[in-house]
Amino acid sequence: MIGMNDLPGSLVAKIYGVILSYFLLGGIAFYLINRKKSREAARESYTKFVTYFLIITVLFFSIVRWPAGFTGMAGGIIIIGFGEMIRVFLQNDRKKIKIFLGSILIYSLLAIGFFRFSRLVPALMLYSFLILSIFDSFSQISGQLFGRKKLLPRISPNKTVGGLAGGLVIALISGYLLRGLYPAQGWRLFFLILGVVLFAFGGDVAASWYKRSFSVKDFSALIPGHGGFLDRFDSLIAGGCWVVIWYHFMMIQ
Q1: CA 179, 198, 110, 72 torsion: positive or negative?
Q2: Within 10 A of 203 (CB to CB), how many other CB atoms are there?
Q3: How many CA atoms within 13 Å lie on the side-chain side of 252?
Q4: pLDDT tens for each residue of 177-226
Q5: Residue ranges of the domains in the chain?
Q6: Is 156 helix (H, G, I), strand (E, B) or coil?
Q7: What distance in Å separates the CA atoms of residue 189 and residue 56, rounded to the nearest whole number?
Q8: Whole-structure pTM over 0.85, yes or no?
Q9: pLDDT (tens digit, 9 = 90+) per residue, 24-43?
Q10: Rounded CA gap, 94 and 88, in Å?
Q11: C-alpha angle 217/40/27, rounded to 5°?
């Protein structure tokens, strides 16, 4: 492992308190949004919200208290992701082989980066994970509240300018509020946060493009309210890969 240092229990409690505060704000926002939806759509939205909270909690405590377990989870996510991509390809009667092979190559590179991310120092893993989760959550919320102009309607109809902008702003603000968690300052910190956001967004878009290419809505139905593992973890895989690139670039400065 690279620098296996445990985080103080008091710090872990404070950070988890911040996570709970964000989820409380998110829950209020989802309540306001879901009031205008049908009962079935609202139930699906709440299921997604609760499942996401459980996933974030499990990953959070694995990073801060059992990093080896997080590495194991990362390996599991990667393997299941490969299986989901292959499954989608086979369901399409093995057509579009070039798209499949090219996507597998890109995914493999991102997966290598993500696995290395799972072996970084816990403080850097946790900081990056928090930024990514905050961006992921608030881009969805701001997109539903303020999203008007669609970014990529043919690839990912739910992506909006408002959602991306809102998620980016909240992630940047949160990143600077949480900057004491990992000793990076100035432009280095800015590029860490910005890269996490852009790679996370790019990973999500790439997964959507792959699904559209094979005319499927979800990679699988393994996670209630989310679909498959790649539907949930595509941004984490890509964002984690960026953190490794950033880390090694900073090491040679």
Answers
A1: positive
A2: 26
A3: 5
A4: 888 888 888 889 999 999 999 999 999 999 999 999 999 999 998 998 88
A5: 9-251
A6: strand
A7: 23
A8: yes
A9: 888 888 788 788 788 888 88
A10: 9
A11: 90
